[in-house]
Amino acid sequence: MSEEIGVVVTGVSGRMGQMLVAEIAKHPRMHLAGAVEREGHDWVGRDVGSAMGGAPVGVIVADDPLDCFARAQAVIDFTAPAATVAFAELAAQARAVHVIGTTGLSEDDLTKIKAAARHAVVVRAGNMSLGVNLLTMLTRKVAAALDEDYDIEVIEYHHNQKVDAPSGTALMLGEAAAEGRGVDLRDVSDRGRDGITGARKRGDIGFSAIRGGDIVGEHDVLFAAAGERIILRHVASDRALFARGALKAALWGQDKAPGEYDMLDVLGLSDG
Questions:
Q1: Are strands 5-10 and 30-36 parallel, antiparallel or unpaired?
Q2: Structure confidence at residue 34 as a pLDDT band (50, 70, 90)
Q3: Which of 39, 49, 151, 181 is least surrounded by Cβ atoms within 10 Å, i.e. has the fewest?
């Protein structure tokens, strides 16, 4: 597909929303078709460029997502779980590709998104970067190669404004490790240690969340055994890489059949 596509950005006032607007403006095959904020937000009714502190761009921030979605080919969504579930249904009605970077989704949320994906393309990932998705593959392969003599710990570092923990990327890495071992992460996840916890349970996958300053995102997967440690690491220093990955996903999804996909599909790294 070579023609230009229109993209709607939800949660446009947020740091990722503004980054997406900036990246779309530079993209040769995309234009900003709409900008959405929640009802009552002070950006609603303003030109998004002006609201961001720059020149007007001719797109007014709206609080009616369906009207915006109907005029676009893709929706990029880094918001909150309840909003994302609602957007998934509306994007499906509009047959727009829905790229989801929202984290903290519950099992019930994921079930509703899966239902929406029966009618439209949904690309959902805890992290949109090439490096993290390669790290996910490596984590799965290393976990498959090592037995439970190697304890697995996922350590994530983010800025002090992040509201969910563990991060979506950390959970994605934990899922990859569990898949490598042939277990269900829900059965082996250890997310809280405080006080007299007793010895570490063999086979568990542990999580630690660090919050501080303006850390964009760092993730370590530690495999620790008697006498040695293996550490897989990814460091993000520029939030724009997540925005660029989301735009890549929006383009990729244009000629795909309805269904739920992830960034491994977008990058051609999926085992399927």
A1: parallel
A2: very high
A3: 39
Residue among 98, 158, 219, 248 flagged as catalytic: 158
35-58: pLDDT as tens digits: 999 999 999 999 999 999 999 999
158 given a catalytic annotation? yes
Which tokens sit at 218? 């760092």
> Helix 240-252 crosses helix 15-26 at what angle (to 10 degrees)?
60
In CATH terms, the fold of domain 5-124+239-266 is Rossmann fold (3.40.50)
The model's pTM:
0.80
What is the Cα gyration radius of the chain?
19
pLDDT tens digits for 143-163? 999 999 999 999 999 999 998
Reply yes or no on whether 41 is catalytic: no
Pick the CATH number of 130-236 from 3.90.190.20, 3.30.360.10, 3.40.830.10, 3.30.1330.10: 3.30.360.10
| Residue in 31, 41, 119, 162 annotated catalytic | 162
**Sequence ranges of the chain with CATH classification 3.30.360.10:** 130-236
Instruction: Delimit the CATH 3.40.50.720 region(s) of the chain.
Output: 5-124+239-266
